[in-house]
Sequence to fold (373 residues):
Amino acid sequence: MLYLDNSATTQILPEVKDAMLPYLQEEFGNPSSKFYSLAQNSKQAVDEARINVAKLLGCEPDEIIFTSGATESNNFIIKGVANYYKEKGNHIVTTKVEHPSIIETCKYLEHNGYKVTYLDVDVFGRVNPEDVLNIISTDKPILISIMMGNNELGSINPIQEIASICKENNVFFHIDATQAIGKVSLNLSEVEGINFLSCSSHKFHGPKGIGVAFIKKDELGLPTPITPLLHGGGQEMELRSGTLAVHNIVGMGKAAEIAFTNLNRNINKLEKLENKLVTILKEKFNSNISFNNDQKNKIPGILSVQFKGINNEVLVRNLAPFMAVSTGSACSSSKPSHVLRAIGLTMDQLRTTIRFSLSSTTHLEELDIFNNL
Ligand code: PMP
Fold:
């Protein structure tokens, strides 16, 4: 069975699993304990993982807070900023095509007295930086949260431009980079103006249940202050207390190390795979299909395709014995996609769309299965 739902999740790499195994058995120490070697080994493993994740993102290790994943990081950052800066303002800006972990968090805040602006996007789901500038001049927000790359369309936002606007205007900027990490090059040390970032390890062949919130250090070398997510023993710089999930952290660190080493090779491979799949689909289905995604400036390996006249749920079910694909994001499969609605598709177009998402571990020859459908 060909797995083409890598935006939903990816398979853990064997090297990642092997790196994790000792921490599920013999190396069971609590990294917050002191002096004995079981604890020190765990602490050292966590430190090493933090360095590897920081390298992948291009930030400092002490700007990394381990969380349970991007949903948690998104909640943490948005609620944490909203709460900490409530005296400064109550306006938050995001977009109509964010992941539910952003949109639902914003809706929750709206019910609690905050004002949220959901920016429109273009036909490929991208934000216009001018809209960001306009909203800042109209009603200065305390936070702008915009995804780096879209999970349904792959479109990459002009993050650098938006970050400069935010920096110039002294507004916090958060990016949800969950789909982009490992598939798009990003070096936080080279982009001024990004204060926060979220990502999840299972999107780049690491384990599930572990992710990161990047919180930029200020001029004094301290993390940008926000309200802690979990109060308790003070782990993760007192922002996210709780005994660290060492095995998962080690797995994420290994996956990050591999993603960093292979980044260019993986991007090339994904581009090759995508080109091959597009060519086969076009040859086979001609005018019976159309692509919702842009062809350039996107996360390689994510395709959103309308199969005209065919219900997407039926298609996904019929394909299931041969290949795993999805009707959009895995997170909202029962509801029509808010992303596709926001780019202006009709209900009919929405109901015929399926998403293919490739991985650098997919083999080119495996795509020949499409020729035999
Ligand atoms: N943001 C985006 C853009 C995503 O695609 C996802 C996962 N589909 C998430 C956040 C949430 O990630 P997780 O389910 O690992 O918390």
User: Anything to note?
Assistant: The pocket of 4'-deoxy-4'-aminopyridoxal-5'-phosphate is lined by residues 69-71, 99, 101, 147, 151, 176, 178-179, 200, 202, 211, 329, 331 (CB under 6 Å). The chain has a mean pLDDT of 96. The CA atoms of residues 306 and 353 lie 4 Å apart. The chain has two domains: 2-9+264-372, 14-261.
